[in-house]
Amino acid sequence: MTSAPPAAPARPGPVAQIALVDLLDRLLGAGVVLSGDIVISLAGVDLVEVRLHALIRSIRAEERR
Amino acid sequence: MSESGCYLYAIAAPVDDGVLGGLRGVAGEPVRAVRHRDLVAVVGTVDVGATGAFGEEALARNLNDLGWLEHAARAHHAVVDGVARAVPAAPLRLATICADDDGVRDRLERWHDGFRRALDEVTGRAEWSVKVFAPSSRGPGVDAEPAPAAGTPGSGAAYLIRRKAAATARDDALARATEVAEDVHAELAAHAVGARRLAGQDQRLTGGATPMSLNGAYLVPIDDSGGFEAAVEALRARYTDCRIEVAGPWPAYSFVTVEQS
After folding, report:
1. Which residues in chain B have their CB less than 8 angstroms from residue A40's CB?
2. What ipTM is given for this predicted complex?
C-alpha cells in the first residue's frame, strides 16, 4: 500500500464571511475566465456599472429607513 | 420552455461526493462533479430556457436586480467555499454556463494544463483582503488650522482661507494614505506567496468616512494565517492614523485566472 501524499491543510470554520462588495469585486472581476462557445458568459465591465449603481441605490434606501 | 444548462462553480481536484452532497447552488439545485482525467468541474443544472432564471434575457435582467444578484453571488460563494475547504479549487466567475456535461468535459480537456497549474498555485493557500482607508483630514498630524484671521469674523477672506486650509488638509490626508498603502502592500506582499492590488472601492459603496487607498488581495499559505494576521496587526500599530481592515480567509478568487490561449 502506498502512502497518500500529505493532505493540504483544511481551512477550519463556517462559510467564510465576505462583504457583498468584496464578493462582487471578485466574482465579476476575477476567477477563472472561460471563453469560447460558452452559452452565456458575462462581460465584467458592464456588470461593474450595474453593481455600482445598484449598490448605491440599495445603500441609500437603507439610509432612508 | 425549460432547457437545462450546466452552471460552473469551480474547477477542482477530485472531490468526495460527501463534500458536494451538503451544498446547494444558485438555483437551490444540488451540485455535482463532472469528472475528466485528474480534474473535476463542480456544476449544477439550471434552467436556461426562455422562461428560466438563467435564460439569456432573464439573466441580464436578474443581474440588474440587486436582491437577485446578492442571492446568486452568496450561493455561488457558498459552493466555491465548500469545495475550496476540502480540495484545491479554482473559482469561476458568476454565471459561467455551458450547454451540457460534454461541453464541460471538452473544456477540461482543452485547458487541462492551465487548470492543473492554477490548482497547484492555490493548493494549501487562501486569499485575504487588506484595505487601507485615508486618515480623517481633521485627525492628528494635520496642523493646517489657520491662525485667526485679522479681518472681521466670517468675512469672505476668512472663509476662503478656511476652505483652502480644509482642501490642503484633505490633500495631505490622501497623500499620507497613498504612502501608507504602498508600505502596507509591500510589507504584506513579502508575507504572501501572491499579492495584487484591486481597484479601490468607491467610497459610496464602502460607506467609509474617508477614501480607500489600498484594496489588496494576498494569497497566503493556510498554515501561515496566524503570521499574516500578526503582520497586519503590526502595520496597524505602526500606522494608527489610517484605518486598516483585514478579512479572510477566502477561496483564491483573485489569484486564479485561466484564459483561453
Report:
1. 5, 48, 54, 56, 59, 95-97
2. 0.82
